[in-house]
Design a protein that fits this description.
The complex is a heterodimer of chains A (about 220) and B (about 625). Chain A has a domain of about 80 residues. Helix content of chain A is about 20%, strand content about 5%. Chain A contains five helices and three strands. Chain A has a three-stranded antiparallel β-sheet. The two termini of chain A are about 35 Å apart. The N terminus of chain A is likely disordered. With about 625 residues, chain B is mostly loops. Among the domains of chain B are: about 70 residues, no CATH class; about 190 residues, no CATH class; about 130 residues, no CATH class. In chain B, the strands form nine sheets. A two-stranded antiparallel ribbon of chain B has the order 1-2. In chain B, a hairpin with a 5-residue loop joins strand 10 and strand 11. The chains are: A alpha+beta (about 220), B little secondary structure (about 625). At the A-B interface, loops of A face helix 1 of B.
Chain lengths: ~220, ~625
Amino acid sequence: MKFVLIVAVVLLIVAITGSAQIRNSKHDLSFTSTATTKTTSSSYTEVCVFCHTPHSSDNTSLLWNRTYSNATYQVYSSPTMEQAVPQPGGVSKNCLSCHDGTVALASVINNPGSSGGIQPVFSGTGMIDTTGFTGMGMNLTNDHPISFVYNTSQATDPDLRAATVTGSKVTVSNAGTSLTLYGTTAATATLECGTCHDPHGVSGVPTFLRASNDASVLCFTCHIK
Amino acid sequence: MRLLNYIILITVSILLQVSAWSQSIVNTKHNLSITGPGAIKASGETQVCVFCHTPHSKQATVQLWNHQPTAANYSLYSSDYLTSKSYPSGSQPNEKSKLCLACHDGTIAIGAVYNTTASGSIGTIALSGGVTTIPAGSASNLGTAFMNDHPVGFGYDPTKDAELVSRSWPWTSAVKLSPNTAEGKVECPTCHEPHNNTNGKFLQISNINAALCAFCHNKTNWAGSIHKTSTQSYTPTGSATTTIGEWSCRNCHQSHNGQGVPYLLKLPEENTCYQTGCHGTTSTGVNTKNIQTQANKTYKHPVNTISGLHKNPDNSTSLNVPNRHAECYDCHNPHQAKDGLHTLKSNAVSNVLTGAWGVTPGSATIWTQPTSFTVTNPVVQENQICFKCHSYYGLGVAVTGVTTILGPSGINLTDQAMEYNIANKSVHPVSVSLNNQTGATTPRPLAAAQMSAAWNGVGTQTMYCSDCHGNDQPTSTTVPQGPHGSAYKFMLTGNAKYWPLNAAGSLWTLDDIRNNRNNWSTNLFCVNCHPIYSGGTWRNNVHSRSNHQGAGIKCVACHVTVPHGSKRSRLIGYRTDISPYNYNGTGQYEKLVISGFRKASGPNSYSTSNCTFTSGCHGTESGTFEP
């Protein structure tokens, strides 16, 4: 009974510290944000709208409110990765609708207000600078591969940990860290940006990682090195 | 108590974690984070992978590489051996190796990465103790000069070197070329897996019994060589006690930072052989023989005194003036050598010389220099090793057989291929048995009674150069026997070691024998095999003549001083012969005196008519004499 209590307390602490912290993070592009990059439109004060809308979304998923990129990407390859990496798909496309640097930050489908509203204004190019780390560009050869079926890679690489399926949730877990793959079966679940990153932020964790990468625990969740 | 349970729970969890990581990079020197087990680690950084990898980079790179690259230009490995094989020369290390060299050439700070922990900043991760690059002198700092490192950037071509294992592509082992194709190169990851130190030294596969070396290297006859089969105990520096056989290649070679260049030797030339417990002064003296002491004696092959001239393989230029030398490898092949000395009445290459190469002289007319040679590899007869240096092959032109090269025993070196020419009238049977000495007149061999019991194969037996030249110490299991060095001139070996002078420095005479002077029976070199006078009997009637037994009549008045061979029968020399064949002393009979000689039908059939003289002795005889 005492042990259950301890576990419950630990889970509670994790829940608190793991809470989303998008307000005033770099992903808060609203006029009132303290972030460096944000809209210059003083009336544009909503936070979620840059990605989500309760209505009139692009009708795919996640109530998505942004124009997707049409870019074709150079994908990652390596002599030790036998599986070919496909073009980015799934939720990674959502991230790349800002982070490939080809789509304006202002490309919101349904702006605040009636009749589609007025698009926000950004200074400069209005797009993510692809010379910086946040701008992937269209060359993904120097970025961790995404959108590949994890288990297919794992099958040919003994240095990758096997995924586990719980109901319709596919995860890779090690030493208390669990990362989510996107898909409902091990045969189809892919690794996407969201496997490592939580775009809404985790308190105390830099670079929107799902958990601190101290001791490289995120890397070692999948990679057995 | 509840607290104790909790502590136990946590402890067990940690232990399970440590167990899971026991083969992990986390427990290796390549974990450079603050928790790393090595001496070199970060002062604050906790991430392990970041020193090499990043999930996002702005660099054009492979494998998500994060370390700043080295710009060094490397001097590549090369060797005479590779050149002799027309082995394709190497190129600068490829990208795979340069990833490793970004730390291991010692030019770039270990912490110099592109993408550090914080949100994407270029910078250098600080290391504890102010360490920046891998310290100079560290075994893991390879520097930029690769002559003492196993080659990288080299292709793998068994068609050029038959001692490389041939296998089909792609290789399925953890040992792979980069890329893993016929066009691939040997690079650092061919042998090393930087994430896994299970095998030590981050090796791809275990190197027990030098299995990693043997994955590529298949030295001819290595499996049967004493250096592979020996069960002799051996404690390598920094490693646990093992056996010579298990330690195998690593007895002599080290893949990185050895002192012997090229060939990845631990130490330069003979010093590799002289390591502790091997063939140096620290030899155990039981199953390994101390050669270092031998080669420091007065009369010796110049193993210890000449350095830097040996080539692999040597040739007639690299063995000749001004490159004359003798290294262990010139006579021995440590990859093939076996335990065991030679037997009598043979010239077949002995176990310890197995696998060495030599030369076989071509034909030449009587008492002329053979000037054509066939490289014989491996040698069949011991003399083929000696002829490399002691013939035209390594001496050059010497029409009279005598060079201008002064030997350590005080006479000029002579051409022994000329002296052992099959066309000569008399020789010691080093090259062929005397029945096959086509230049000799019958009877070709001496009579059996003129030989000691051990040499009873008259006419059919052969012998080694090392039957006469070798260690001055008595034969035993703890001292080496070959001609490495000796306290006696010409490295003469056997019970009796004096020729042509006795221990008192006087020329030997038959008087010494008849009147038992100068310890002739134990000192006169010839009597090791030739019982000139024993049991009250002279073994030929020339020696028995009392007027040949005068104290002033020296052996060298009739016989050549270099008793390898002669233009005349029975090692007789003529007064016109030159030094050193002619002793040319000052006294009347301290030099060759005969003008003509003809062999008799038997050892006791000689008369005055067999010799002729210009003056003195028994005067001028008529008839035909040997030229």
